[in-house]
From TrEMBL:
Its EC number is 3.1.3.25. Keywords: Hydrolase, Magnesium, Metal-binding. InterPro entries: Inositol_monoP_metal-BS, Inositol_monophosphatase-like, Inositol_monophosphatase_CS. It catalyses: a myo-inositol phosphate + H2O = myo-inositol + phosphate. The keyword Hydrolase applies. The keyword Metal-binding applies. PANTHER family: INOSITOL MONOPHOSPHATASE, INOSITOL-1-MONOPHOSPHATASE-RELATED. PROSITE patterns: IMP_1, IMP_2. This is inositol-phosphate phosphatase.
């Protein structure tokens, strides 16, 4: 059912028109609910969820509601697992393990950047079923960049096919890792090997979705994250995979959007880089 939705009568998702319909829904939600509030937020429109760094705004909530309505209308019988809906009712997350097609939505990935008037935020949408990622949309509205990935059919940025490529031999690896403001003391310790490794330049991440996009376009070599919320990772993991990269959890397995992953994990622009970063995190790379 879901695959037919993506491929239509042509059998080719890039020609079926469905990807464009979802893209239009994402763009409309951003245009209606996010961009009018960019650099226009009032103080009462910003709320702390779990501390001063974990913010939610009226734009997050309104955009998720907009996307929930438009995406489920495109695919009857589908459900939405959105960041704000799960915050209100954690049981919503269980839909990832159910039989219905699931839209995984992060309405504003990089809310802190959005609140501070920084253009480094995006809207993330992924379509999955039975825990398998099928397609994803990464949209940076201020930058007007749209990356779309389809399992088994590659990825495109603004219509142009993408390949992540490999780092130049001997080059310093550029790695974005979980921001210290969002990590526990134990998680900080888990990521220390990246900061102390020769030949690696590790820095705190910004919007996870845009960091994944940077890996997929070959501007960043890898990411390393210590949390597993599906809305932060689903779109980007498929994007990296479809541009030639891969991901590894601490046990060497691929990341599961349904949860239960060994943390931290990495996603990188090629298999060799992923293996090396994984080895650093696991204490096996020298």
């Amino acid at each position: 059912m879901t695959e037919e939705f993506l491929s239509g009568t042509t059998g080719n998702p890039w020609e079926s028109g469905t990807l464009a319909l979802v893209e239009e829904a994402v763009r409309k939600a951003a245009a209606a609910e996010i961009m009018p509030r960019f650099r226009q937020l009032a103080a009462h429109e910003i709320v702390e969820k779990n501390g001063p760094h974990d913010l939610v705004t009226v734009a997050d909530r309104s955009a998720e509601e907009h996307l929930t309505a438009s995406l489920t209308a495109l695919l009857p019988g589908s459900v939405v697992v959105g960041e704000e809906a799960v915050h209100a009712d954690p049981s919503v997350y269980e839909a990832l393990r159910g039989d219905a097609p699931v839209w995984i939505v992060d309405p504003v990935d990089g809310t802190r950047q959005f609140v501070h008037g920084d253009p480094g935020f995006c809207t993330l949408v992924a379509l999955a079923r039975h825990g398998e990622l099928l397609a994803s949309w990464t949209y940076a509205p201020v930058l007007d960049e749209m990356a779309i990935a389809v399992r088994g059919h590659g990825a495109r940025l603004d219509g142009v096919p993408m390949r992540a490529g490999s780092p130049a031999p001997g080059a310093v690896l550029e790695v974005a890792m979980s921001h210290p403001d969002f990590t526990s003391d134990e998680e900080k310790q888990d990521l220390l090997p990246l900061q102390h490794a020769d030949g690696v330049h590790a820095r705190p991440c910004g919007s996870a979705g845009l960091e994944y996009l940077a890996v997929a376009r070959g501007d960043l070599d890898a990411v390393a994250f210590s949390w597993e919320n599906a809305w932060d990772h689903a779109a980007g993991l498929l994007l990296v995979s479809e541009t030639g990269g891969t991901d590894l959890t601490l046990t060497g397995e691929r990341f599961r959007i349904t949860g239960g992953n060994a943390m931290p994990f990495t996603a990188a622009r090629d298999a060799a880089t992923a293996a090396y970063v994984h080895g650093l995190l696991a204490g096996t790379s020298r």
